[in-house]
């Protein structure tokens, strides 16, 4: 799965790197750094996905003594979250801000197929929960959790009561005590689910910049954005999943030209397939690379040899697989295994 993120996340990371005089251009793969720079320069024409963003976060981590996700959250402002940030700041109180966050959370990303955020209210506390199905995204989950906390802090007129509980869906790569100090409470790890719990009284915490008229205008814009992308994204995802299923079949059968095989399964010519992909703003090679990346990570975790993975994914040899893996992630397969 490839989930695109809004430009604010890239600007936030770039701002922190510049302030700390950190240059990652010689640390990550050149193509990755070039794409990062291109997206910052032309955000309307370029897109950046979560997976590559996480690679940059991991590359930056050795330069900090604390989790990079917490450093970013402390440097973040509401504008970094785009429309979602403005909606939160103009809300009457935290209760309204959290309701809007739940409704429009997917607008932080450029696709709607990430896990949905759920705001749950109980008699004496409120908690924000979302399932986390992708361990490769753990830094992104940690960052979003920290951003939710910082948003609540920044828009409340009075000092915010610390959370009662923080839950991580995956154990972080850095020590838990950093997060406990940041949130002011204990951290639990419960597989596959992130959560933050506040006492119920924070719901009435008033917003510094409350403006209901502007908030209604922004809410209307957010709903229009959500409506416009939902149907297109669903159709795009369905077509993409169909392509991936045929790619999987083609790889199992060791088909030499996968695009020709997929076109045949779709009962069309390769040219027609290309037109259909273009209509959905998709690229066959990108879909193939994404599938190979996800499968290669799975195979590596299962302990399969590099040569076996190369054969299963239809690479000429082990070296070709290694070069492709580093191009995708910025790490060699050996470095990836070591990070696990």
Write the SSE topology.
Layout: H1 7-19, H2 30-41, H3 50-60, H4 68-75, H5 83-89, H6 94-104, E1 118-121, E2 125-131, H7 138-155, E3 165-168, H8 176-183, E4 187-189, E5 193-199, H9 212-252, H10 258-265, H11 270-279, H12 284-301, H13 306-312, H14 318-329, H15 333-339
Parallel strand pairs: 3-4
Antiparallel strand pairs: 1-2, 2-5, 3-5
Helix pairs in contact: 4-7, 5-6, 5-9, 9-10, 9-12, 13-14
Helix content: 55-70%
What is the top-level CATH class of the largest domain?
Alpha Beta
Shape, per Cα inertia axes:
globular
How many E strands? 5
Order of helices and strands: HHHHHHEEHEHEEHHHHHHH
Count of structural domains: 2
Strand proportion: 5-15%
The residue ranges in which pLDDT falls below 50 over 5 or more consecutive positions are none
Tally of contiguous helical segments: 15
- Measured on Cα atoms, how large is the radius of gyration? 22 Å
> How is the biggest beta sheet arranged?
5 strands, mixed
What class do helices, strands and sheet pairing give? alpha+beta
Query: What integer is the average pLDDT?
Result: 84
CATH fold-level label of the largest domain: H-NOX domain
- The CATH architecture classification of the largest domain is Alpha-Beta Complex
The end-to-end span amounts to: 20 Å
Largest sheet, spatial ordering of strands: 1-2-5-3-4
């Amino acid at each position: 799965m490839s989930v695109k993120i809004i430009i604010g996340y890239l600007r936030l990371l770039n701002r922190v790197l510049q302030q700390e005089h950190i240059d990652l251009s010689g640390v990550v793969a050149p193509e990755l750094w070039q794409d990062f720079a291109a997206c910052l320069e032309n955000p309307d024409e370029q897109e950046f996905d979560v997976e590559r963003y996480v690679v940059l976060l991991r590359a930056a981590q050795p330069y900090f003594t604390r989790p990079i996700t917490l450093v970013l959250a402390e440097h973040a402002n509401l504008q970094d979250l785009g429309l979602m940030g403005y909606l939160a700041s103009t809300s009457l109180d935290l209760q309204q801000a959290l309701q809007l966050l739940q409704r429009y959370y997917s607008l932080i990303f450029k696709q709607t197929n990430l896990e949905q955020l759920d705001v749950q209210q109980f008699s004496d506390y409120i908690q924000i929960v979302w399932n986390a199905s992708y361990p490769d995204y753990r830094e992104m989950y940690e960052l979003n959790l920290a951003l939710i906390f910082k948003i609540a802090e920044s828009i409340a007129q009075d000092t915010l009561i610390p959370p009662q509980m923080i839950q991580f869906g995956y154990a972080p790569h850095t020590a838990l005590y950093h997060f406990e100090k940041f949130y002011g409470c204990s951290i639990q790890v419960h597989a596959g689910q992130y959560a933050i719990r506040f006492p119920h009284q924070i719901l009435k915490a008033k917003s510094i910049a409350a403006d209901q008229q502007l908030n209604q205008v922004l809410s209307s814009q957010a709903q229009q954005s959500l409506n416009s992308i939902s149907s297109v994204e669903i159709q795009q995802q369905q077509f993409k999943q169909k392509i991936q299923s045929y790619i999987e079949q083609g790889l199992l059968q060791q088909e030499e030209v996968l695009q020709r095989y997929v076109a045949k399964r779709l009962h069309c010519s390769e040219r027609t397939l290309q037109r259909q992909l273009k209509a959905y703003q998709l690229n066959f090679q990108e879909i193939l690379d994404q599938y190979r990346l996800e499968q290669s990570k799975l195979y590596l975790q299962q302990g399969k040899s590099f040569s076996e993975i190369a054969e299963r994914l239809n690479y000429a040899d082990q070296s070709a697989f290694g070069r492709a893996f580093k191009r995708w992630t910025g790490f060699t397969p050996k470095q990836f295994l070591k990070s696990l």
